[in-house]
Design a protein that fits this description.
Layout lengths: L6 E2 L4 E5 L2 H14 L9 H18 L8 H14 L5 H15 L1
Antiparallel strand pairs: 1-2
Length: 103
């Protein structure tokens, strides 16, 4: 750990550091959007949940779980609504992950 922040190595961003402002923006997005979306999930949890859902759909969506579709799509909606709240650095660091899920 450095004075500026924690390494992003776990997220595949070895050379980038997040600072207090970046972490505050993630917390702010989580808090502001928690009343609109189920659960107060973190950015990392939303990214993981969205990636899992995309992988499930690519493998063939099981209609037995159709009742969960709206809940799963809420992760995408949360990310869309959170993006303007997050700092530019957080968005830049995570954008490639989102782009990979779209293509």
């Amino acid at each position: 750990m450095t004075k500026k922040g924690l390494s992003c190595k776990a997220a595949g961003m070895e050379s980038e550091l997040l600072d207090a402002e970046d972490y505050a923006s993630v917390l702010r997005a989580t808090q502001l959007l928690s009343s609109r979306y189920l659960h107060g999930m973190t950015l990392n949890a939303r990214m993981e949940a969205w990636a899992e859902f995309v992988a499930d759909v690519e493998e063939g969506f099981d209609t037995m779980w159709a009742w969960e579709f709206d809940n799963d799509m809420a992760h995408r909606d949360w990310l869309h609504d959170a993006w303007p709240i997050l700092t530019e650095r957080v968005c830049q660091l995570r954008q490639s992950e989102l782009d990979a899920l779209v293509t």
